[in-house]
Design brief:
This protein is α/β, with parallel strands linked by helices and about 350 residues long. It has 10 helices and 15 strands.
C-alpha cells in the first residue's frame, strides 16, 4: 500500500498509528511531501531519530522541503535506483529514502514526477535565532532545466509530487498575516506553473502550507492526511445509520478478541483524529508501566506491548467520550472515504 501525507516536521505520531493500525511492512510506502525533518539538526540528533524510524515497518519516501538539508550534501548518503528512479539513502537506515528532484518513479505502474523545495518565509527568523536554513532550499536553475528537458518528450504523467504548489493555486486564505508577501520569492511556484501547463497529469499532491485543500479533481494539497494513490468515492450517512453501523462493528470487533481489530474499528469510527487519540492516552503510560512491571512483573519489550496496554485501558472511556461528542452533534452527517 502507498500512503501520502504532508509536512511531518519530526512529528511521526500519526504515521506510527497508521503502521500499527494497518500492520504495515517495509513493502508499504509512506510518501512525505517535504519537511519530514529527518535531516534538520546535527548528525547526532538526526541519527537518533533515524535509528527510531528505521525500526518502523514501512518505507519512508521523502520529497525535499524547505526545512531540511538536501541529502546529497551529507557525506553518508549514497544513490541507488528505487522504483525506476534515483533516491538518496544511508546504508544504516535503508527504509529512509529521499527522492531526487526531477526523477520519474514507477509506483504501481503509475508515472510519478517529483519536484521538491520551496522558499522559507521564516528565513530571517531562523537565521536570527540560529536555526537551520539552507541556501539550496529551492530547486536550482540546473535542476529546473533538467526537468524541462525530461518532460519535453514525456508529458504524460500520472502523478506529480511537490513540496509547494503552482503559483495559480496558492492557498492565500491561510497565508500568515505577519509576512510581507512582496518579499517572498515565488520562483519555484512560477516554475511549477510552467510545468503544469506542459504536462498531461492526473493528480498533483503537495504539502508546505499546513492545510487541507482540494482543487478540481486533479490537484490536492495535504497535511497529515493519509491517502492511498487511487480513486475515491464519498458516501454520506445519517446519524442513525452511522450509529447502527458503528454499534455492529464494535460488537463484532469485541467478539473477535483481537486488539488490532478493535483498534482499527475504533480509529475508523472515531470523531477524533489518531493524533488526538494518542495524545489522550499518553497520560496512561505510567499506569501501563505500573501494570506491567509492578503488578505483573513483566517488562514491555516492544511498541505493541505498550500500545496494546494503553488501548485496553483507554478504549472504554474513549467510547464514552465519543458518544458524548456525537450527542452534541445531532443532525450532522459523516463522510466515509472508501479507497477503490
Amino acid at each position: 500500500m502507498i500512503y501520502i501525507t504532508g509536512d511531518t516536521h519530526r512529528e511521526f505520531t500519526k504515521i506510527l498509528f497508521l503502521v500499527f493500525q494497518n500492520k504495515t511492512t517495509y513493502d508499504d510506502v509512506i510518501i512525505i511531501l517535504g519537511d519530514a525533518g529527518i535531516n534538520y539538526y546535527d548528525e547526532k540528533i538526526d541519527n537518533q531519530l533515524k535509528e527510531q524510524l528505521s525500526k518502523v515497518p514501512i518505507t519512508f519516501f521523502c520529497i525535499h522541503g524547505n526545512h531540511e538539508k538536501r541529502p546529497q550534501t551529507i557525506k553518508s548518503y549514497k544513490e541507488k535506483i528505487y522504483k525506476d528512479g534515483t533516491v538518496f539513502y544511508e546504508e544504516k537506515y535503508p527504509n529512509l529514502l529521499f527522492a531526487k528532484d526531477g526523477e520519474i518513479y514507477n509506483f504501481n505502474n503509475k508515472k510519478v514526477l517529483v519536484i521538491g523545495g520551496a522558499y522559507s518565509v521564516d528565513k530571517e527568523i531562523r537565521l536570527a535565532r540560529g536555526y537551520g536554513w539552507w541556501e539550496d532550499e529551492q530547486p536550482s536553475e540546473e535542476v529546473k532545466n533538467k526537468i524541462l528537458k525530461k518532460i519535453k518528450n514525456n508529458k504524460d504523467i500520472d502523478i506529480v509530487l511537490s513540496h509547494t504548489c503552482p503559483y495559480k493555486y496558492l492557498p492565500r486564505e491561510v497565508f500568515l498575516s505577519g509576512i510581507d508577501q512582496s518579499k517572498v520569492d515565488y520562483s519555484t511556484e512560477y516554475f511549477l506553473d510552467e510545468i503544469e501547463q506542459k504536462l498531461n497529469y492526473k493528480k498533483w499532491y503537495c504539502g508546505h502550507f499546513h492545510t487541507d485543500k482540494k482543487i478540481d479533481t486533479a490537484f490536492a494539497r495535504l497535511r497529515q492526511r493519509r491517502e492511498s494513490v487511487g480513486r475515491f468515492a464519498a458516501v454520506a450517512e445519517t446519524p442513525e445509520q452511522e450509529a447502527a453501523r458503528v454499534s455492529k462493528e464494535l460488537q463484532d470487533a469485541a467478539s473477535s478478541g483481537d486488539i488490532h481489530t478493535i483498534v482499527k474499528v475504533i480509529a475508523n469510527t472515531s470523531t477524533l483524529s489518531p493524533t488526538d487519540f494518542i495524545q489522550k492516552t499518553v497520560g496512561s503510560l505510567l499506569y501501563v508501566y505500573y501494570m506491567y512491571v509492578d503488578r505483573f512483573h513483566i517488562l514491555p519489550t516492544d511498541l505493541d506491548d505498550m500500545i496494546d496496554g494503553i488501548l485496553y485501558i483507554e478504549a472504554h472511556q474513549y467510547n464514552i467520550d465519543r458518544q458524548r461528542q456525537k450527542e452534541n452533534k445531532q443532525g450532522a452527517t459523516k463522510i466515509i472515504v472508501e479507497i477503490l
